[in-house]
């Protein structure tokens, strides 16, 4: 009984080994440009197409072009093409290369965005908006499609509102003969005003101008009054002379 059982076990193992070897031989029999369906090695469909009907021992593989919005970038034995990649504008992406029947679309960051991770196969998968520098910082390195903006703090005595490529020195009010009304900070310039001495000079100039205007006005009024007084007597004398001329006797040259 033991010997019979061992024989049956041996025969079963032999049959299983034969099946495995047969399957391996059949699998190895298909060429690189073929795919296996059952016991048949069918020719693959070229890139840009998909399998419509598998081959049989009487006919070859039937292929169809990929539908719009799908692609197949390698020879295949698949019955469906892959869906094209979508570069969603809402995610900061735009189309770099449009999808075709034999290649997938490639995406890249929009203006003002950068690719978070190094592009895979020339395609950017995730984009992020460039960072804004804060007041008190300057833009050391502008953002690019592959890197974020690099910001650095301003040094003491300089300022930036966050949009400058380098910090600007504070205005030195004293050098302009002005007083510092508000000291400069890292994010704002100093504010200057007139000094006290300048204010006194300005007030003195204004008073002088007003006084001159008053004097000129008074002189003009007095001059007009004098002119009027001179005009009246002359007018009376002229009238008197006219009256005297009318009362003189007329000389007829006789008697």
From TrEMBL:
Keywords: Disulfide bond, Membrane, Signal, Transmembrane, Transmembrane helix. The chain crosses the membrane at residues 200-223. It holds the Pfam family TNFR_c6. Residues 243-255 have a biased composition (Basic and acidic residues). Residues 65-107 form the TNFR-Cys domain. TNFR-Cys repeats lie at residues 65-107. GO terms for cellular component: external side of plasma membrane. InterPro entries: TNFR/NGFR_Cys_rich_reg. SMART domains: TNFR. PANTHER family: TUMOR NECROSIS FACTOR RECEPTOR SUPERFAMILY MEMBER 14. This is TNFR-Cys domain-containing protein.
